[in-house]
Amino acid sequence: AQALQLLVDMSSNCVAMQTITCNAALRACAKDGEWAQALSVLFSMVSFSVDLDTISYSTAASACEKGGEWARAMGLLADMALA
Q: Are 41 and 25 contacting, i.e. CB atoms less than 8 angstroms apart?
C-alpha cells in the first residue's frame, strides 16, 4: 500500500512515472498477492504512457497468481506475448 501511495504522491507532485518505479510498486503488490492493486498500477502505466516491459507484465501476473486470479494472470501473459 505504501508503494502505491508513493506513485500517487509522485503524480500529484508532477514527478514523471517511470517504468522502474512502477515495477517496484508492482513487486510490492505481487509480494502480498494484491492483484487488484497490481492491475491498477498496470493500467495507470498505460494511462500515463509509461512503457510496460516484460517485468511489468510478469510481476502483475505473479500478483494475480498469488491472489488466486489465474485467468487474469494468463490474460496478462497473453497480452505480454502480443506487446
A: yes
